[in-house]
Amino acid sequence: MNTTSSRPSVPPVPDPGRIVLLTTSHRVAPGLLSWPAWQALRSADRVLCADGAHPQLPYLREAGATVDESAPTAEELVDACAGGRTVVVVATGEGEPALTDGLARMAGSGRVAMPELELLPASYDLPGARLLDLVQVMDRIRRECPWSSRRTHEGLAKYAIEEAYELVEAIEAGDRDELREELGDVLLQVVFHARIAEEDPEAPFSVDDVAAGIVTKLIHRHPHVFGDETASTPEEVKEHWLRTKAIEKRRASVTDGVPLAQPGLALAAKLASRVHTAGLEVPLPQDRGIGYELLALAVRAETEGVDPEAALRAAARAYRDAVRAAEGVDA
What tens digit of pLDDT does each residue of 14-29 get? Predict the structure, then answer.
């Protein structure tokens, strides 16, 4: 006689399914999704998107995905996954905070069998992608801001100089937060001028033209990186740079291209550097006066590898601190 008692059968636990929250970057061309994203879309029981104008929708539908333009609540989404179904939610540009908050509350209650939740990035920002945001923001400001819409290259020129000096100050102070901010201010000047340049009726150009020009220049002047030449020392790199630059510019004098409007010490040092690099022996003009004495000091600084502008600023800051100390003012 079998004395083993029979146990009641336990009903199987229903599969709560799976939610895939698909995120995309608006800085990447629509349709360029990762392979795991396409796999999730093709295997999903339902694909939902709350934004009927989402840039990905035409490409998803062209690829054969059926997308419902709906914004379910957390409860509705959980119900849609019941029975082991997979629902893909194509997130809007702002994400889905209301939906994810609702799912978190349901999971925290402990009263609901929650579907598996997966966050799947379908496209990623490449390095430099935020520059696209800057271009778009600048474009809108130029169109809609009463002040910015009236600016000209000439009117903005002084700001470029100011921002460059503030950047140098941040570098010399070693302030990393300030450095990041000042780099942004300098970048703004570049993008602002490029946006104004688009409106020129005779010779327009855009920020893409600016970027394309510097990319071409950098590649051409670095044949040891992008070409067949070799350079193992900074001096050899400088040689390559100067040689290719001379061929490009076809200058008659080593002084051609030196901006005469730059600060005096920097101008003197730049001229001395050009003369030194060219291997010329040019005696300094002999005359009495402070200007010629400063010229001699700038040439000496360049010869010794010292930036005379930076050296004078450092000395001036020390002098400022001494003045404040004499006044009894904190540095």
Answer: 889 999 999 988 888 8
Helix (H) or strand (E) holding 118: strand 116-121
Distance CA 24, CA 93 (A): 8
Q: Provide the CATH number for the domain around residue 157.
A: 1.10.287.1080
- 241 lies in a domain? no
Q: Which helix (H) or strand (E) holds 327?
A: helix 308-327
Q: Mark which of 160, 187, 205 sits at the end of a domain.
A: 205
What total of structural domains would you count in the chain?
A: 3
What residues have CB less than 8 Å from 296, skipping those under 6 apart?
284
Span 276-281, average pLDDT: 86
Which range of residues forms the domain containing residue 328?
A: 258-331
- Residue 201: pLDDT above 70? yes
Q: Is residue 265 classed exposed, middle or buried when 0-12, 13-18 and 19+ CB atoms within 10 A define those classes?
A: buried
The last residue of one of the domains, among 92, 121, 150, is 121
Count of C-beta atoms within a 10 Å radius of residue 21: 19
Assigned domain for 218 exists: no
Pairing of strands 67-68, 86-90: unpaired
SS3 83: coil
pLDDT for position 248: 76
What is the β-pairing status of strands 86-90 and 116-121? unpaired
